[in-house]
Amino acid sequence: MNSEHRLFAAFLVLLVTMLTACTQKNSDTDEKSADGNEESIRYIEPNAATGTSMGTVVSGKLPLAHTGQFLALDKDGKLVGTDNTGQQIQQVLKNVRLALTEVGAGLENLVKLNVYVASNEVAEQVRTYFADTFTGEAKPAVSFVVTKLPRQKALVAMDAVAAGVEARDQSEVLHADSLYGVPNRGHVAILPVGERVYLSGQVDPGDLLTATRGTIESLHGTLAYLGLSAEDVAQVKAYLPDASRVDEVEKVIAEYYREKPVPPVVFVEWSEGDYLRYLSTDGEKATPIEISLITSGKASTEDTTYARDSPNYLTYPGLTDYPGYSRIVTVPQADLVYTSGLYGGPSRDAAGQVQDIFRKMKDILKKAGSDFDHLVKGTYYVTGEESSDKLGDIRKDLFNPDRFPASDKMPVRGVGEKEVTITIEMVGMVPK
């Protein structure tokens, strides 16, 4: 090899080394892992200013835990920090931690936090608190929704998803004696390693309590179709028109489970609008409640519709198919990606905000190793009819019509950011 060839070869080695270092540096900036091994949580675009990440990726080898919704209540049910937002945030996060302690986990295991606030201003205070709390590598994905909470003077509530909790062979619901609540009501539930199932919100007609009872029964009819039961449920999420009636609704839900521990429950008050009214079968306006479920699943070796390398998008035969979402999505054991609640630019119109959100989502999914074809559950919070309509139009063009994620879409008072009319959060599968 002559001197020119040696010089050129040395230059190539140097160039490759520099590019590798730059790539590693960018990777470290955009994505971090809790412990560097494959059975971990990865954090996509962690932000020290908010203490949160744009997305998190959870190894399919880790069991998950879903909590109920926690207010700033002490063990005796007294609201802490009646007129102090900071004290309420502190107490709520303490309650989340106490629930996770029951499954051998802590705040460092958090994957996703769903935050319910009385105003956009409270959301800003929560972000500041998170920045001071999540100062290490572990920074969960977070979403915000402005809604009336089921206790006077309550300003903030949260529920959580955590990974790397105690392993179980099947779902298990646990009650924490250190937290306020009726003994048979679950504060946290473990989803074992394996298949997970997401059911879109369902609704039955009737007055609020009749509709609640009918909807719970319908959802469990859907579970029976999948070969599942009440014992597989890890979380119940209910959207209702009046948060002051949460206690009544929760009692009806508990009646269904009878002697079994009641799974963790989350409530969101939705803002009524003509574009999302539900009608009873006789044409009279119903008092609606919409309820969705998250459960563990069972693989079927005989049913050829169960492809093990991708989610399965199904419809229970008794339910009507609607464009834009699937009724049921089953997810084989695989890594999952959770996005934060995403926003578009506040100066953009409704269509522009939705387009901004999906651009961000595409980037997050790409960094996670996923894409739109592997989304499994979406939650859409909107503050106006135009945003709802534009969302419906745009997602139909972006998503594969055979692979719509399960979803809940609700009109709410706000989404945690001023001058923004929609926020979207997603759960996706990372294909192998």
TrEMBL record:
<protein>
    <submittedName>
        <fullName>Enamine deaminase RidA, house cleaning of reactive enamine intermediates, YjgF/YER057c/UK114 family</fullName>
    </submittedName>
</protein>
<keyword id="KW-0732">Signal</keyword>
<dbReference type="GO" id="GO:0005829">
    <property type="term" value="C:cytosol"/>
</dbReference>
<dbReference type="InterPro" id="IPR035959">
    <property type="entry name" value="RutC-like_sf"/>
</dbReference>
<dbReference type="GO" id="GO:0019239">
    <property type="term" value="F:deaminase activity"/>
</dbReference>
<feature type="signal peptide">
    <location>
        <begin position="1"/>
        <end position="21"/>
    </location>
</feature>
<dbReference type="InterPro" id="IPR006175">
    <property type="entry name" value="YjgF/YER057c/UK114"/>
</dbReference>
<dbReference type="Pfam" id="PF01042">
    <property type="entry name" value="Ribonuc_L-PSP"/>
</dbReference>
<comment type="similarity">
    <text>Belongs to the RutC family.</text>
</comment>
